[in-house]
Amino acid sequence: MGNKQTVFTHEQLEAYQDCTFFTRKEIMRLFYRYQDLAPQLVPLDYTSCPDVKVPYELIGSMPELKDNPFRQRIAQVFSEDGDGHMTLDNFLDMFSVMSEMAPRDLKAYYAFKIYDFNNDGYICAWDLEQTVTKLTRGELSAEEVSLVCEKVLDEADGDHDGRLSLEDFQNMILRAPDFLSTFHIRI
Amino acid sequence: GDTSGRRPSQKQAPRAEGAAGRRGAQPGRKEPASGSPRPGSSQRKQAERRRQREELGEQGQSSAERTFEGRRKRDGRASLKEQRAPPKKEKEVPRKEEMWKRPKKHRSPSLASSASGGGSLSEEELARILEQVEDRKKLIATMRNKPWPMTKKLRELREAQEFVEKYEGALGKGKGKRLYAYRTLVAKKWVKFKRDFDNFKTQCIPWEMKIKDIESHFGSSVASYFIFLRWMYGVNLVLFGLIFGLVIIPEVLMGMPYGSIPRKTVPRAEEEKAMDFSVLWDFEGYIKYSALFYGYYNNQRTIGWLRYRLPMAYFMVGVSVFGYSLMIVIRSMASNSQGSASNGESTNFTFSFKMFTSWDYLIGNSETADNKYASITTSFKESIVDEQESNKEENIHLTRFLRVLANFLIICCLCGSGYLIYFVVKRSQEFSKMQNVSWYERNEVEIVMSLLGMFCPPLFETIAALENYHPRIGLKWQLGRIFALFLGNLYTFLLALMDDVHLKLSNEETIKNITHWTLFNYYNSSGWNESVPRPPLHPADVPRGSCWETAVGIEFMRLTVSDMLVTYITILLGDFLRACFVRFMNYCWCWDLEAGFPSYAEFDISGNVLGLIFNQGMIWMGSFYAPGLVGINVLRLLTSMYFQCWAVMSSNVPHERVFKASRSNNFYMGLLLLVLFLSLLPVAYTIMSLPPSFDCGPFRGNLLQEACLDSSRRRPASTIFQDYGTTGGSLSSCRLAIYYLNSVSKSLSRANAQLRKKIQALREVEKSHKSVKGRKTAQDSEDTAKDASNATQLQLTKDGTTLHRASQNETPDKKAQDPGTSSSASGTTLPASRHLSIARPPGARPDSGPARPQTHPWRSASGKSAQRPPH
């Protein structure tokens, strides 16, 4: 069965299928996408698990990500050291979470991490400001931005501590009708 | 006896072999699937050493913890506080890792000792191993749902698989053992088969890449139309299979051939023109007398050597087309509504939703992204303005007046278009009686209907600008108005058609007499040698009635084809040529064409979806009288998939006004259901109340029940339908309603449970706030620590309640383990609460740490896992 392609062993493919939401074909497609990003860097043989990282500049220039205002955050969250450089495993992880089949809770967990710009485990007012600025490309005035942040905290902060915990965020995002359809990248 | 002797060797073997296998030599037995086999012996040695260290530490800890077995929960919280004291994260990470691993490492020596020393495994140990193996299996199955980095997932997966591989064989005794091994083998094969099948299935979904392309260029709203189109194509393919497989192919293979009887022969008068293209294009001539239409079918009870009951099959297929469509529409509606369980409280989170869900991650095109940025900015501004002045003072009288005026104008438009169609259909009936009419006069109905469909929606939009509604409400109104227009047009068309049918029916009696008279004269005419039997009259010469069913079928066929052509021509002229003009004339024009007036066209989602829905309505209505209509429709959908994909990619620009796809999906389905009912009505009415033609179609004379009932109970069709039709119809509609309501109630009850949980959580938060305040005076706790404890307590109580509710009818020993599982469950969601797993007594449930973390955060899984019986 696995004789035709030699990128992965059969066991590796099976394990990847267990760990992601992808079928064999999709994993191969993702691998080739990954390989295309840096053809001279990424070997065509992954049976011995080479330790290769593709720099963020290449990851962020993928057509799927290049117009996303949060692309840097996404890459940082899914990379191992938080610097945005990704191994193939990170790459598969990212698109698995972003795939259609991933459950709401998994997506919510990673969405929280993405919107948590300073990595302190909470979405605070500063994180919210960053989010609004990125979403609107800074076209809102400072008062408007602060008003919006205030409103968001007012709505979603369940325990009134002035910032959103993961719990608050999940509470809010699980009710969002569009979250599943928008937090999703097809590849 | 012999089992105990064999077991240790079995257990030692895999480990040794596994070690040998990793060095390179491929072992004979199947190695557990490993994502990243770690070569290099030094690493392994380190791991070995660490394991030893852990075992040593474990003994001390486990003995200490065994004393606390009764008060596990409190113990957990106490140790949580202890663990929180060192706040340094870097230090904790490796410890955490060890904590994750420890339970597993702890177990293996105890198992080995019991296996080798005790001779045979005791019952409870067996049960425990079995449970662990089951847990591992579940872990393997849900591995992809874990929020872990891939390396960790791979490692956990490998360990779990090794564990399962190793201990699976040790379970069971004697015959039971072999049975167990067999069962696991079958289960493994089944999982593999399922995965292969899923792989195969995803490959079979057509146009995935095309739709993905569109999605990344235009966002999810435009793609939703194409997904809808694909769904429609699937439904039509099934209908096509039903009709072709059960009606058309049997008729072609086994029925009487063309030219054998009058209904299957072109009449003498039409014969010389029957093959002209202009005649064929109008579905007259040879096409009219083919298996594509109702009139071709013979009313023999059975056909062919199979004794196939074609009339009955025809009737049942007609019914099942509607039945299947109803079922599939309601099913997809129900599954859609399950997805959006709690949209009732979306008003509470306007800003939060705008902030966190407004960006469509699918967008992969800078132009679309620009539009999206702009629309997000405007929507933020809008809601800020709404927030700031919620009670805006405007000239309410003027607004009211304008709205009334707009509605009045639109009603005028609707009435006018209805009258126009009625007038045109009436006129076409006069034309049909005349000879040599022009092309325009022949196709007037279709042209007028298409033109109305083309020009009325923009007119409505212009009028709607008067009303000054919020865009989203305005869009709903617009959809409703276009729907009313299409519906009105369709029903006017039907009423006019019905008039025509009644006219034909009234003539039928005289034609019947003429036919009889002709045949009678032909056979009894004088001047023929009486001794020789006369050859039968050639079927083309027999005078025949104007089979109204075929006429209706032809009308629908022509409407469908002209609709298709108009759609394509509109796309070609309106979109493609306009795009070409804008693109190439922009170099030599006085103003900027791309940004200025003509610009590029947007993809009209609502219009296209409504067009598709009404087209489907026509198919449903016409398919009884023209079985070939579904085939035409399948072709139409197939071509329009490719054509529209090309057109949208080549000549359209993304939307400025964002139209959310997810919420409107059920709206489309609801419209489709309405259209289905509305198209069911006229068909049911014609079948029930109008007598079938005497000389065409599968139903003999006046009695439809020939098709499905035995002839001894011969009654007029209408009474039969009153008896069987009403009861059957009401029964089936009741069942459908029950199905739909059931699925809706399921989603509602889920929402209800969520709400209850939320209330519980709120209460807990309040309580813990109080207690924390009380404690604050005594001990000086850090802010972060407080929050973490709040959150974890919240998590704990939440888990407790869910598990409690789910496991009400479970064995008590399961309940006893709940604190342990829930504490470990919260470990994945909150980094601070991860340390809870330390406090877990390993004796009670050694592996619940790694196996259970999925129980809480992935709520969907929690119900199932909690209700699973303990082994």
Which properties best describe this structure?
heterodimer, A: 187 residues, mainly alpha, Recoverin, domain 1, 2 domains, B: 871 residues, two-stranded parallel ribbon, 28 helices, 71% helix, disordered C terminus, TMC (chain B), transmembrane helix (chain B), TMC_dom (chain B), mechanosensitive monoatomic ion channel activity (chain B), membrane (chain B)
What would you note in describing this structure?
The complex is a heterodimer of chains A (187) and B (871). Chain A is mostly helical and 187 residues long. Chain A has two domains: 6-101, Recoverin, domain 1 (Orthogonal Bundle); 103-186, Recoverin, domain 1 (Orthogonal Bundle). In chain A, 52% of the residues lie in helices and 0% in strands. Chain A is built from ten helices and no strands. Chain A has helices at 10-19, 24-37, 56-59, 71-78, 88-97, 104-115, 125-136, 142-156, 166-173, 179-182. In chain A, helix 6 (104-115) packs across helix 9 (166-173) and helix 7 (125-136) packs across helix 8. The longest helix of chain A is centred in the C-terminal third of the chain and has 15 residues, at 142-156. By secondary structure, chain B is an all-alpha fold. Among the domains of chain B are: 124-204, no CATH class; 208-343 and 355-519 and 545-714, no CATH class. Helix content of chain B is 71%, strand content 0%. Chain B has 28 helices and two strands. Chain B has a two-stranded parallel sheet with strand order 1-2. In chain B, 31% of the residues are buried. The model of chain B is unreliable at 1-45, 47-119, 702-716 and 780-871 (pLDDT under 50). At the A-B interface, helix 1, helix 2, helix 5, helix 6 and helix 7 of A face helix 6, helix 7, helix 8, helix 13 and helix 14 of B.
